[in-house]
Amino acid sequence: METMPGHSRYDSFVRRAIAISPMRTAVVHPCSEETLRSAIDLKTQGLLDLLLIGPEHKIRAIAEAAALSLAGIDIEPVEHSHAAANHAVVLASTGKVAALMKGSLHSDELLSAVLSPTSKLRTERRISHVYVMDVPAYRKLLVITDAAINIRPNLDQKKDICQNAIDLMRLLGVERPLVAALAAVETVNSKMPATLDAAALTVMAARGQIEGAIVDGPLAFDNAISIKAARAKCINSQVAGQADILLVPDLEAGNMLAKQLIYFAGADAAGLVLGARVPIILTSRADSAKVRMASAALAVLTTAKRHEPKAIA
Questions:
Q1: Fewest CB atoms within 10 A around its CB: which of 46, 143, 235, 293?
Q2: Is 296 a residue whose pLDDT tops 60?
Q3: Closest among 143, 137, 223 to 177, alpha carbons compared
Q4: What is the pLDDT of residue 2?
Q5: Confidence of residue 3 (pLDDT cuts 50, 70, 90)
Q6: What are the CA-CA distances from residue 255 to residues 38, 126, 130, 131 (Å)?
Q7: CA distance 233 to 247
C-alpha cells in the first residue's frame, strides 16, 4: 500500500452533490445541539433542504441556546422520537422528502420504523449500511459493508448487501468494482461458514446473480488490500490486493475493522443506509463535519440517480 498525504478522496463526489439542487431531507428528532448544528451546516453548504421532525418547543429552545438560526427551515411538530421516526417514514413514502437523516434518537428506533410491516419504504432488497472510507494508507476509496445493521447475515442477505455496495461504487464512478468477500483465511474450509459464503458469492457473481462487479473470496483482509501479501501467498485473483469493497462476514467483524481503521489508521468513514426507497443518513456523534458532509453527499447522489430519466430502448 502506498501512503497518501492528507484526505481528499471525498472532494470530487461532494462537489458533484453540491452542484445538484438541495435534497429535501427529514431530520428525525434533532433534539441536541450537535445534531441540530450538523443539519444546519449541511443546509448552509447547499446539500440539504431541511425538514425538522420533533418537539418544536425543544428544537427552538436548543437553537436559541446555541445561537443557531432556524430561518427558512420547516418544522413538523411531534411529541417524541418514536412519533418522529414514524412520521418521517410516512413523509418519505409519500414523496414529501427524498431522504432521512438520523437526529438524536437511536439508530434502531429509526430503522425499526423504516422496516415496520406497515412501512412503504421497504423494497425487495435487504437494507444494509456502507462505510465509504478514506484510508490514508490505501490508494483509493474503500467500502466496508455491513458494519452497522445486519448482525449475522445469511448468504441471500450477503448477496443484497454486496449489490447495494456495488451500486453505490458504480455511482461514484467505479465502473466495475472489485469486491473481496472476507474471511479469516483465503481457502474454503467446511468448518468456517464465512469461507463457504464467500465462495458461493464468487460463483453467483460469475453467473450474473450479482451484477456489475468482480467478486472473489474467500480472501483474508491482508491479501484483499495488499498486493504484496497476495503475491506472497501465490493468490491468483483480479481482486486480491486492490479491493474496492470489503464484504465482511458479520457485523462484529465489520464494526471492529472499520473502527480500527478510523482510530489506528486515521481513516474517515462516511456512512449511508441503502436498500430502502430512500437513502438514510446515519451519523455518529464522533463524526467530523467533513464526514457528515460526505455522508449527506452520498445520499444526494443516490437520490439524483434514482430520479434520472430512464433511457428509451
A1: 46
A2: yes
A3: 143
A4: 41
A5: very low
A6: 24, 19, 11, 10
A7: 21
Chain center to CA of 237 = 27
Q: Are 187 and 250 in the same domain? A: yes
Q: Are residues 137 and 241 in the same domain?
A: yes
User: For position 306, what pLDDT does the model report?
Assistant: 78
Q: Is the pLDDT of residue 10 over 90?
A: yes
Q: Are residues 133 and 255 in the same domain?
A: yes
Residues 19-55: tens digit of each pLDDT: 999 999 999 999 999 999 999 999 999 999 999 999 9
Other Cβ atoms within 10 Å of 169 Cβ, number? 23
Comparing C-alpha atoms, which of 40, 83, 36, 78 is closest to residue 61?
A: 36
Q: What per-residue confidence (pLDDT) applies to 284?
A: 82
Q: In whole angstroms, what is the distance from residue 176 CA to residue 106 CA? A: 35
Cα→Cα distances 288→73, 237, 285, 292, 293, Å: 23, 36, 8, 6, 9
**3 state SS of 54:** strand
CATH number of the domain at 149, please: 3.40.718.10
Mean pLDDT calculated for residue range 273-299? 93
Q: Could you tell me if 103 and 27 are in contact, meaning their C-beta atoms sit under 8 angstroms apart?
A: yes
Domain that holds residue 86: 14-122+276-306
pTM (2 d.p.)? 0.93
Residues 192 and 102 in one domain: no
Q: Which residue has the cell 434502531?
A: 108
